[in-house]
Q: What sequence folds into this?
């Protein structure tokens, strides 16, 4: 009960202690928080690495998702605990920033929390622990910079990029096709990348999936796929050298925004109105024809009559195309989105070498391919797979691979994977710890130990003896002064990750350490948890 | 100390062994459920819906059964999903794919119990699947160039597909129907142009394929019942009152006389429209929308046959069949392509009158009229026929053919066993398990037929030990038979899809080590 006394010595209650309200404070609160954070990390721990397992998630509506992408797992979990929510946020921010390593960051944060718990039990003040972690993270990040490599690649030599993307994909269910998918991802990113500015706009890469077929059928299309078909069944299914009019106005008589009434009181008026209406349709089609369009893509629907007129005038059309797709089409074909028929000019038309309709399987699903566009800076990755969950998971995996490729273009430094970077940092932090006087030294050492958790989890998931393997690798690193030794997850026979071609991006790894440290610091600073009663 | 709740109320979390067990049990339960429908002597299931009317479906189509189940187990949902995809992609093999995936998981469970890591099993399964596919594609036959043989192949495939269904009695009849229908498509997989009309009455063997097109509609009153050398205009236009589409238009008048005038104008407008249509020089007009009495009368006067309310599919098909275009405006009679056919007449099937278009220009489309004792029989017959049509249309594109009756499984088993022997390490156990799972399919076919499966499958295996054997299970005589002579064939594409999707699904479920189920969404909250 939180009591205070006023100037007359009468007690009054600040916070009402009630049955329904739970309150934890002091060490108790910290421990509860740490326990929650650890619980989240434990869930993800088994998903780490190439031999990591997947999680099956059932949403409130009964849909099933199978994934081993950390961010997706946490997003879909119905988490109620506040601290657990922080961990979810952590994984999400890694996803937004880097796109990969979402599992690793949570596992690291969990390890840091576990170490902190031990220190708290020894009576070290949480703030000191937090400060120690901060120093240690700085050391680790600097050291990582030191052991990193510049990775030289050019548009013609994409091999390094493909290898890095394969590392990302090797932990996913698509690992069977990792090489092919990595190549697709790299080609997609290079197609849209601005190598001068070292920037990639991932919005220009559309990842479209369709259930059916095999994973091997996944392809990169230099163009756009739209999940629509021609508005009239008898329009041509293939158009060469298409000139595309991209419209956001419906093929209908105009509807003024202001309320109005057209009163018909005589037969003449009735007839003029009728002619007017026919003229509208004729004009609209004529305008498209006049500017030389051979394909109309429209955001809205058409009237039956307009549809037939288009068909009749040999002007294929696609209706109900979504706004985002419309934009992509405009970018890809170099056209302009035209909001009014009056503003249609030949310069505003988009150009594409080939537009074709393709049907799939036994159902009547059709898709429209727009290929060989004027501006090739918009590509589509078209994913096929045996079932819905497979396609969804492949989409997520490809997204990760795309992010990795983008990060490499932004900053071409890499570190070696397989836990080697963590082990190297751990050694560096451990060595640095001795130079710091004061309680922080303990915290820094604890940080070094927490870093060991990631390779340990990797070894455990691969069915190796975690402690044996880790100590062996660590000893090897110090003895050979080779920071590229890691866990041999795939049983290749060598621990040198350079030979195994396991790479990760430097920024990804650094971000992991920084983000995890930040969140742990935040959690450690909490000493009072007040949960209001259910309402 | 105990953690506070991590997840929301009612959300459940299952880990490690328990999660794996839950998914295995779920998947196997589903596989066992449909197992008894496999093969020519497979049994049917009755499905009763929970909706109003408690409608009943009798079927042995795996995809249909699974689609109608209410399943809570997430792993089971994966299997339902692969069966659905199999249905969409190739149309047949929906039961096999689920049974195979279930068996792969059953074998995996045994391996996990002897402490083999799931990832090792997956690696083994992948190798085995790859090897099995190669083995199958090596033995697949392709007769695309030889028209005679090609047709015979298609017939065999259709017969094999149909023999496990309700149509088994008249399988030759229906196989011929299906093959004829698909060959008319000339390589397109668009099954929409094959129309299936179901009419209760008669027996299944009264079903027939009609080369023309049958529209389940009536001819307007007072119009000719038979037209030869018809010129058809297929249209999608309003023939009730042609509304003014300009927004906000309304009629406001101040006297009765004016109302009459406007009404007359409206009529005049309609008359004009009809005249324009008639000016196309047609003698048959088919509209997707309603035709009111007034224009109908006008058509009758002009001696034009008018058919109203043909649904969208009907219109599209008719346009396809007769080679006309679907018109909505009628100002340029010269450039509108009209559909043509030799003869339009009203025919009777059972008690219903239908309109029959024969001698159509484009031979692509055709109609299959199914007759049968009850609507359940007809529904099931339609599903079966649809399966056969799907398989055939896929075979037209990929004309590789393999034998049926457990032959492909035995061929694959042989190669996979060989691979297991050559592979060092724990993976070989998984590869062996894969071949055991494959053998379950012939075993189940034999079991369902009430045969001694252990005896038969072992004899089959011995027969397959010699290379190039064509032995399979002959369920009719209950013995090992020569599939080539019996004419039991399957499409390569179907088997390949079964193999790959089943492996993919099993792999997916095997990789799971934790199941988190969110609380079911309550109706009232967050809507």
A:
């Amino acid at each position: 009960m939180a009591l205070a006394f006023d100037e007359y010595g009468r007690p009054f209650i600040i916070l009402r202690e009630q049955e329904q309200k739970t309150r934890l404070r002091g060490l108790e609160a910290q421990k509860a928080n740490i326990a929650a954070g650890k619980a989240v990390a434990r869930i993800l721990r088994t998903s780490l690495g190439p031999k990591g397992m997947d999680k099956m998630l059932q949403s409130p509506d009964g849909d099933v998702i199978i994934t081993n992408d950390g961010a997706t797992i946490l997003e879909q979990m119905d988490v109620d605990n506040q601290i657990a929510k922080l961990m979810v946020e952590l994984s999400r921010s890694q996803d937004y920033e880097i796109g990969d390593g979402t599992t690793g960051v949570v596992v690291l944060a969990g390890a840091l929390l576990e170490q902190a718990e031990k220190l708290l039990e020894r009576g070290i003040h949480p703030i000191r622990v937090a400060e120690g972690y901060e120093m240690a993270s700085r050391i680790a990040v600097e050291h990582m910079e030191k052991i990193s490599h510049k990775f030289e690649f050019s548009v013609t030599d994409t091999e390094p990029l493909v290898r890095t993307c394969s590392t990302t994909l090797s932990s996913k269910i698509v690992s069977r096709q990792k090489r092919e998918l990595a190549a697709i991802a790299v080609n997609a990113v290079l197609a849209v990348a601005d190598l001068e500015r070292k920037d990639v706009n991932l919005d220009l890469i559309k990842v479209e999936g369709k259930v059916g077929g095999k994973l091997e059928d996944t392809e990169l299309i230099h163009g756009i796929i739209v999940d629509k078909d021609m508005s009239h069944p008898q329009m041509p299914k293939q158009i060469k050298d298409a000139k595309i009019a991209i419209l956001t106005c419906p093929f209908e008589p105009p509807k003024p925004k202001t309320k109005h009434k057209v009163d018909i009181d005589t037969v003449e008026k009735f007839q003029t109105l009728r002619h007017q209406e026919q003229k509208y349709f004729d004009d609209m089609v004529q305008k498209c024809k006049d500017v030389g369009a051979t394909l109309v893509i429209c955001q809205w629907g058409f009237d039956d009559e307009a549809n037939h007129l288009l068909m009749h005038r040999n002007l294929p059309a696609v209706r109900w195309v979504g706004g985002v797709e419309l934009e992509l089409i405009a970018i890809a074909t170099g056209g302009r989105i035209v909001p009014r028929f009056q503003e249609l000019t030949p310069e505003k038309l988009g150009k594409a070498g080939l537009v074709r309709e393709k049907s799939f399987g036994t159902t009547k699903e059709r898709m429209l391919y727009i290929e060989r566009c004027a501006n090739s800076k918009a590509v589509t990755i078209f994913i096929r797979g045996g079932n819905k969950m497979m396609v969804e998971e492949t989409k997520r995996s490809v997204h990760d691979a795309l992010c990795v490729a983008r990060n490499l273009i932004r900053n071409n430094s890499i570190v070696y994977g397989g836990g080697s970077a963590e082990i190297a940092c751990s050694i560096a932090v451990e060595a640095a710890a001795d130079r710091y006087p004061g309680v922080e030294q303990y915290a820094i050492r604890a940080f070094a130990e927490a870093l060991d958790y990631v390779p340990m989890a990797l070894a455990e998931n691969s069915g190796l003896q975690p402690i044996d393997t880790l100590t062996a690798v660590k000893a090897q690193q110090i003895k050979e002064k080779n920071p590229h030794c890691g866990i041999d997850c795939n049983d290749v026979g060598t621990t040198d990750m350079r030979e195994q071609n396991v790479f990760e991006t430097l920024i990804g790894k650094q971000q992991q350490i920084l983000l995890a440290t930040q969140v742990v610091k935040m959690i450690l600073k909490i000493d009072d948890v007040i949960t209001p009663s259910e309402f | 100390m105990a953690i506070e709740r991590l997840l929301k109320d009612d959300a459940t979390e299952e880990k490690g062994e328990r999660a794996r067990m839950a998914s295995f049990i779920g998947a196997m339960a589903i596989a066992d459920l449909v197992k008894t429908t496999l093969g020519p002597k497979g049994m049917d299931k009755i499905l009763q819906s929970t909706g109003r009317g408690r409608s009943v479906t009798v079927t042995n189509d795996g995809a249909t059964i699974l689609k109608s189940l209410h399943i809570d187990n997430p792993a089971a949902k994966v299997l339902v999903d692969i069966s659905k995809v199999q249905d969409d992609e190739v149309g047949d093999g929906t039961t096999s794919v689920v049974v195979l995936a279930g068996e792969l998981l059953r074998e995996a469970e045994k391996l996990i119990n002897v402490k083999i890591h799931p990832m090792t099993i997956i690696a083994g399964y992948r190798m085995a699947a790859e090897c099995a596919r190669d083995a199958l594609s090596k033995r697949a036959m392709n007769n695309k160039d030889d028209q005679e043989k090609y047709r015979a192949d298609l017939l065999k495939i259709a017969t094999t597909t149909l023999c496990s269904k309700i149509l088994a009695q008249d399988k030759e009849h229906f196989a011929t129907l299906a093959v004829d229908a698909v060959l008319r498509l000339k390589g397109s997989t668009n099954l929409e142009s094959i129309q299936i009309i179901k009419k209760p009455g008669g027996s299944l063997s009264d079903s027939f394929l009609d080369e023309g097109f049958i529209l389940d509609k009536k001819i307007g009153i007072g119009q000719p019942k038979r037209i030869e050398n018809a010129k058809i205009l297929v249209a999608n236009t309003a023939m009730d009152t042609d509304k003014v589409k300009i927004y906000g238009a309304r009629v406001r008048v101040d006297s009765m006389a004016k109302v009459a005038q406007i009404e007359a104008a409206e009529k005049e407008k309609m008359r004009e429209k009809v005249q324009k249509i008639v000016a196309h020089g047609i003698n048959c007009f088919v509209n997707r929308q309603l035709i009111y009495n007034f224009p109908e009368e006008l058509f009758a006067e002009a001696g034009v046959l008018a058919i109203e309310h043909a649904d969208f599919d009907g219109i599209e098909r008719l346009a396809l069949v007769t080679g006309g275009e679907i018109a909505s405006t009628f100002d340029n009679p010269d450039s509108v392509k009209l559909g043509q056919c030799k003869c339009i007449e009203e025919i009777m099937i059972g008690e219903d009158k239908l309109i029959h278009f024969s001698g159509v220009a484009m031979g692509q489309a055709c109609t299959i009229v199914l007759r049968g004792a009850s609507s359940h029989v007809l529904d099931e017959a339609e599903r079966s026929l649809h399966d056969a049509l799907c398989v055939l249309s896929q075979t037209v594109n990929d004309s590789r053919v393999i034998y049926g009756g457990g032959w492909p499984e035995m061929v694959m088993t042989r190669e996979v066993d060989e691979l297991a022997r050559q592979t060092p390490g724990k993976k070989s156990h998984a590869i062996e398990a894969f071949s055991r799972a494959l053998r379950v399919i012939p075993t189940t076919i034999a079991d369902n037929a009430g045969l001694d499966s252990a005896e038969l499958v072992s004899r089959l295996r011995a027969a397959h030990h010699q290379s190039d054997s064509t032995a399979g299970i002959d369920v009719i005589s209950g013995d090992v038979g020569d599939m080539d002579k019996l004419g039991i064939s399957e499409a390569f594409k179907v088997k390949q899809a079964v193999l790959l999707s089943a492996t993919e699904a099993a792999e997916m479920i095997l990789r799971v080590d934790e199941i988190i189920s969110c609380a079911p969404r309550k109706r009232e909250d967050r809507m």
Q: What stands out?
A: The mean pLDDT of chain A is 83. The longest strand of chain A covers residues 350-360. The radius of gyration of chain A is 30 Å. Chain A touches chain B through 87 residues (CB under 8 Å).
